[in-house]
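Hi! If you just cloned this repository, the fastest way to understand the data is to look at a raw example. We've pasted two of them here, unedited. The first protein comes first, obviously.
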Amino acid sequence: MAKKLTRQQIAGSQGEAFVKERAIVEEGPKGGIAGGTAGGKRMGKSDVDDAVLFLARFKGGAVASFEATRLATGNQNKNGIEINGERGSLRFNFEDMNYLDFYDATLERRQQGWTRIMVTHGGDHPYAANWWPDAHVIGYEHGFINMTADMMNLLGGREPVVPMPDFEDAYKTQQVLEAALVSAHERRAVKVAEMK
């Protein structure tokens, strides 16, 4: 995505640690990936932000707001994105990953409203034909299998279903994150190009 969207500057950024002390982890996870870790009785200073917000301005003039928090009560893994424009909007919520919400503002006002698109129809949506019959939803693990299939396709000389990120994308992502940190620390707008 970094190649298609040229990031211009981070307009402002703020991070906040609400929980000043946390239990020091004394034991690793038990019971597999979802086992969690056990905190001990000893407490230690927390130097991790519990909430981070930043604003960005893109080269073409669009603006964006980004938010991340570990204290979003009621959300378990809500990695979401919402894109709003003059002629419509899209939104996606990872906790409901088989759906995409679409709003078409070009329709007559009496027909406007959010459309919930189930993206599991084989042949019309990427990857769906490789799984279950229509309307049989996929889960978290299927995304990793799809990603692995794309990597194998690339290694086999075939195009992936979706564009694959590369090291340049990762570098540009880190530039944006570094610009957000500098913006928060120095209380100023920061051009992404300043980050080397």
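Ok, and the second one:
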Amino acid sequence: MAANIPLQIEVVSDYVCPWCYVGKRRLESAIAQRPDLDIEVSWRPFQLSPDMPRSGRKRLEHYQQIFGAERAQTIMDSMKDTGRDEGITFGSSPDAMSPNTLSAHVLMLWAREDSHIDANALVEKLFSAHHVACENIGDPAVLARIAGEVGMDAAQVRQDLAAGKDEDRAQQLMQESVARGVSGVPFFIINGRYGVSGAQPADAFLAAFDQIIAAGVTAA
């Protein structure tokens, strides 16, 4: 098996998506089991609620509007159980917000383009801030603080976010993912050609890695 074939994994996700956080953990588990592989992970934006007001909406109200009160509670309880299995402690707070995530995706775009920043560390902090700490990641002040924690210039980030810098670029990336057939997240694109949809178990990623390597499918 030609294990020297590099694997480039593009993860299309939205930070408010609990299954995206679970999928991240399962992908990491698969990668940890294959230290022999040359794997590079990058992150692409997607918005589950692109029409969300920039000020956001109370999370519980948002979930209830989508699923109904009873089903919303069932889903949240179920996610806590799923998260526990993956080492994620999903938090809950009556003040938790469902934010518009455009600014968070812009922040990630900047991190990807700065070789001094660990983009994967930023992704983890954004997921954790929303799902564990119940922070409002639509708030530029929260995003600026998180940016500073990974070595970015917090003051500059806050200024640029307030000005709407690069929002058009982030939206263009989202449109490109839709054009490639992505309609839900998480979605994992391996070497530009092979797609894995949903928060699949680690074994599913391992099987995909081996299939791609056996077929000699290099990055497109």
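That's it. A detail worth noticing about the second one: The CA atoms of residues 122 and 150 lie 6 Å apart.
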